[in-house]
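Typical record was shown:
=====
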Amino acid sequence: MTSETVTKHPRSDELFERACRVIPGGVNSPVRAFRAVGGTPLFIERGSGQHLVDADGRTYLDLVGSWGALILGHAHPAVVAAINAASRNGTTFGAPCAAEVELAERLVDSYPGLEQVRFVSSGNEAVMSAIRLARAFTGRDLIVKFSGCYHGHADHLLVAAGSGLATFGRPSSAGVPEAFTACTRVLPLDDESAVEELFAREGARIAAVIIEPVPANHGLLLHRREFLPKLREVTRRHGSLLLFDEVISGFRLARGGVAELVNIVPDLATFGKVIGGGMPVGGFGGPREIMQRLAPIGDTYQAGTLSGNPVAMASGITTLDIMVKESGWERLEKLGAEVERAVLPVLAGASFPIHFVRAGSLFWMSLHDSGAPRTAAPLSEKALGRFSALFHAMLERGVYLPPSAYEACFLSLAHTSADVEQLTRALRESLAAIA
């Protein structure tokens, strides 16, 4: 660790002490707790554009962006105005409203193969519902996921891979009965032979294969371009559904998500983050033939009191409209490339291995000794310690990275070339300080 004087955060410390008395671990989502990097988590008072201000009044360049949801940046004036206007008419009705139709139309017009969409309140809920629908449509029970891909904390998906190429899902959390994961199979990413082997043995029982088409929850794992077409071919051959979890990548990497970029139409897709524009929104959709199995016209139940509420819908509509109007996806690709050009020479001069991985406006600094992995791979204790030191050194220089070595950074339309310079300068100084 660096021997630099660490800035004190007395207000955050006080709030965390109070939080620990009334909230488990002092946080409402585990990664916020700074357990992976040490220290007390910062409590945020406000955000504006590309910046955060903590409870002690210190400003940071934000590279988390509410974990990718804020593609326009914090408190974008047009989004705030849309939220305010909608909330003046009521925050939720528990009944249909025009805004949910308008947002659904935008999604259907943008995403390959999407004919209908159902809104929910989170990406986790979207995935859970899509898998139930896939099982109902196929009449099969088994779900295949990949090690290193995260699809929310539904019991049947909160699993870890065991030994061997094709493994039974084992609960990776207390409170999840083994029976709940008995119908989940876990495969390694980027391994066609493992996919073929599993389908040869159990293909007739597999309802769906779910994958993050750009895995971004265990680092940024960029598999070979051949892998997704292989999944599309195998699932079609065996009558299984292919489910793209685009909660992170959807409407961030392209208007039509990764499906557009790789020219593959999945059978179902899930969305979150960007389509809510900072509000809690998720969605799942696919062709009409599948989606009409949902209640009230079908036999597959799914419901949510706050689903499609007018405030969240207004936020999502405004966000997507601005992205289209301002050529947002093209601008973010250019900004990501600018970050890559600026950061690569700095990382090359580091005293330990650190590798830059990018997909559009997502980037990750991998501290794996042997190079950035394409499949889920654990970091050594030494590497984890290095990241902790780097995280705090960057924080001291006003740059807020995700507080985990396995999490990716997010850019927004609010970020500028000046921010790229600040990031590069802070990174150079931080790497020198912790050498």
In short: Confidence is low (pLDDT under 50) at residues 161-167. The chain is about 40% helix and 15% strand. The two ends are 9 Å apart (CA to CA). The longest strand covers residues 206-211.
